[in-house]
Specification:
With about 160 residues, the chain is mainly alpha-helical. It folds into two domains: about 1-30, no CATH class; about 35-150, no CATH class. It is built from five helices and no strands.
Length: about 160
């Protein structure tokens, strides 16, 4: 059995780190970039998926805590995509909610339909983005990804 070069403790043949002091060992197996983990132990594809879980909120969190390119791409896209859809939903609620106060029946039914169409599109995009991120793909939502590149720079 080999010994740790730092503290001299016995380590397993293929150990990446010493169990006693935590020093890196020379016989460690190579880690591929796609399976690389951060200090939190999270794979890139899992972190990319989590960028979308609670929409722009988790995108913002991962934008600040994870600096890997793949995760940054999905965090930026999540912020722009779901932040924009959230703002559009608020605007629709304000515009068509006010027409309800003034007694506009047709405005209410058109606004109701438009708002729920926006919610359906958001749900579909949410599911697709999470699946694509988990599969390790940089799926670009056409308008949102371009805006994210303009606002944050390319990742």
């Amino acid at each position: 059995m080999p010994h740790c070069t730092k503290c001299g403790a016995m380590v397993a043949d293929n150990a990446g780190f010493c169990p006693s002091c935590g020093a890196a060992q020379g016989g460690a197996s190579a880690v591929t970039p796609s399976n690389a983990m951060t200090q939190t132990g999270m794979k890139e594809n899992v972190a990319g998926l989590l960028c979308y879980v609670f929409g722009w909120v988790t995108g913002l969190i991962f934008f600040f805590i994870d600096k890997r390119s793949f995760v940054q791409f999905h965090a930026k896209q999540s912020i722009v995509l779901f932040g924009g859809l959230h703002l559009i939903g608020i605007a629709l609620g304000l515009v068509f909610g006010l027409s309800l106060v003034t007694g506009g029946r047709t405005g209410f039914s058109f606004g109701f339909a438009l708002y729920h169409l926006l919610q359906l599109v958001s749900l579909i995009l949410w599911i697709v983005c999470m699946i694509k991120a988990f599969q390790g793909e940089r799926f670009r939502v056409p308008v949102a990804a371009d805006l994210a590149d303009k606002f944050f720079g390319k990742s």
